[in-house]
Amino acid sequence: MSLTSRTATRADVDALRELIDRAIAELLKGFLNDEQIRSSAAIMGLDTQLIDDRTYFVIESDGQLAGCGGWSRRATLYGGDHSSSRDAAVLDPASDPAKVRAMYTHPDYTRRGVGRLILGLCERAAAAEGYTRLELMATLAGEPLYRGYGFEEVERIEDASGGVPVPIVRMRKDITS
């Protein structure tokens, strides 16, 4: 299986939303109960600002959508277009970490390098703009991937904005040159 990457466009939005809905519904099982998974869908999602900023990637395998994710030079740490807590303020690479955002893997492509590929793309792009650290908010399902990539836990919180509290983990990583 070979994976390819490209920058997402607005033409990808419908397919990305389908992948994200399926990833949330299937990959959080075993980590969260049904109510928490529904609440997660209200908390997470696609932030099209990343597409407009050209910092969001599509990963494909033989023409099939295998995953998506990106990074941001903006203050928002997590959430989708529907999230009221989005903050479009531009970060300062000298003092702020770039944000890894909206990473999702199609359930048929888990544990095949999709997440690591996205993280590598994000790390290289953020470093090229002068960032020295990355930060993200991990689901419990995504936490092992991020730990394996070198992210360290900053804090564990619960987000109840989707109706039921959902545990999530803020994580950071220094960018290596």
Labels describing this entry:
Aminopeptidase; globular; alpha+beta; 7 strands; 5 helices; single chain; 177 residues
Explain this structure to me?
- This protein is an alpha+beta fold and 177 residues long.
- It has a single domain, classed as Aminopeptidase.
- The chain is 29% helix and 29% strand.
- The chain has five helices and seven strands; from the N terminus they run βαααβββαβαββ.
- The chain has helices at residues 13-27, 34-43, 48-52, 114-128, 143-148, and strands spanning 3-7, 56-61, 64-72, 98-105, 133-138, 152-159, 166-174.
- It has a seven-stranded mixed β-sheet with strand order 1-2-3-4-5-7-6.
- A hairpin with a 6-residue loop joins β6 (152-159) and β7.
- The two termini are 29 Å apart.
What is the fold-level CATH name, i.e. the topology? Aminopeptidase
How would you spell out the order of helices and strands? EHHHEEEHEHEE
CA-atom Rg in angstroms: 15 Å
The proportion of strand residues reads: 25-35%
Number of extended strands? 7
The biggest beta sheet is recorded as:
7 strands, mixed
Biggest sheet: strands side by side, in what order? 1-2-3-4-5-7-6
Structural class: alpha+beta
The CATH class turns out to be: Alpha Beta
CATH architecture: 3-Layer(aba) Sandwich
> What's the mean pLDDT score?
94
Low-pLDDT residue spans? none
